[in-house]
């Protein structure tokens, strides 16, 4: 099992600034494959641009402030998972707004994973994840805009964090604005029976200590 070990990839930060705007974008360097590196960096640049464009739906006035960040959640065993956020405020809006998007990829092949690809075909992963979200909503007493909670989406936003799959929702998607982004960590061990063989959940669950 020790063959799963792989050094974390080198993640650098590209910074773009202009009056009132600061945006940080992840950049990979020194990957074994220049082709894969170019593909992944292009995807990260596209992610940043997508969030900037997304803000145009919410901040329709004169832009006063925009800040883009990212957080690396997993960087091990050939897997990289991160979430990027963009906060913007434009006058005369009542308040700013934040959008988020995440990417999970194989740094060796350059392939990106959708939520469904983490699981076996026909596994019923949507219902299992929904059960976990319902239980956490109840336990954490999170308020809902339109109760009861029904289901996660088949392509629900997610990222991987150590030994967890974290599914999350946009602002105002299921909870009031003040809650922020409702995030629901689910242990990979609870998902192993339906995890894709050799997939990211399978890889993260292996103990190589």
Characterization of the model:
The protein is an alpha+beta fold and 209 residues long. The protein contains four helices and eight strands; from the N terminus they run E-E-H-E-E-E-H-E-E-E-H-H. A hairpin with a 2-residue loop joins strand 3 and strand 4. The model has no long low-confidence stretch (mean pLDDT 95).
Features:
single chain, 209 residues, alpha+beta, five-stranded mixed beta sheet, three-stranded antiparallel beta sheet, 4 helices, 8 strands, 23% helix
In brief:
The chain has 209 residues and is α+β, with helices and mostly antiparallel strands. It has 4 helices and 8 strands; from the N terminus they run E-E-H-E-E-E-H-E-E-E-H-H.
Which band does the percent of strand residues land in? Answer: 25-35%
Number of helices: 4
Radius of gyration (Å): 18 Å
Oligomer: single chain
Quote the distance from N terminus to C terminus: 10 Å
Low-confidence segments: none
Secondary-structure element sequence? EEHEEEHEEEHH
Residues in helix, %: 10-25%
Q: Topology of this protein?
A:
Blueprint: E1 10-18, E2 21-29, H1 34-55, E3 62-76, E4 79-91, E5 97-106, H2 125-140, E6 158-161, E7 164-168, E8 183-187, H3 188-191, H4 200-205
């Amino acid at each position: 099992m020790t063959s799963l070990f792989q050094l974390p990839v080198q993640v650098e930060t590209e910074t773009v600034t202009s009056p009132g705007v600061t945006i940080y974008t992840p950049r990979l360097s020194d990957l074994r494959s220049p082709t894969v590196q170019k593909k992944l960096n292009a995807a990260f640049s596209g992610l940043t641009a997508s969030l900037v464009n997304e803000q145009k739906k919410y901040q329709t006035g004169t832009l006063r402030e925009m800040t883009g960040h990212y957080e690396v959640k997993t960087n091990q065993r050939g897997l990289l998972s991160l979430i990027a956020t963009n906060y913007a405020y434009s006058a005369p809006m009542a308040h700013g707004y934040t959008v988020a998007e995440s990417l999970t990829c194989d740094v060796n092949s350059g392939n990106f994973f959708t939520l469904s690809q983490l699981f076996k075909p026909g596994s019923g992963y949507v219902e299992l994840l929904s059960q976990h979200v319902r239980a956490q909503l109840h336990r954490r007493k999170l308020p809902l805009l339109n109760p009861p909670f029904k289901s996660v989406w088949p392509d629900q936003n997610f990222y991987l964090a150590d030994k967890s799959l974290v599914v999350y929702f946009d602002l105002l998607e299921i909870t009031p604005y003040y809650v922020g982004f409702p995030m629901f960590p689910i242990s990979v061990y609870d998902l192993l029976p339906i995890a894709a063989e050799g997939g990211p959940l399978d890889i993260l669950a292996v103990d190589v200590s």
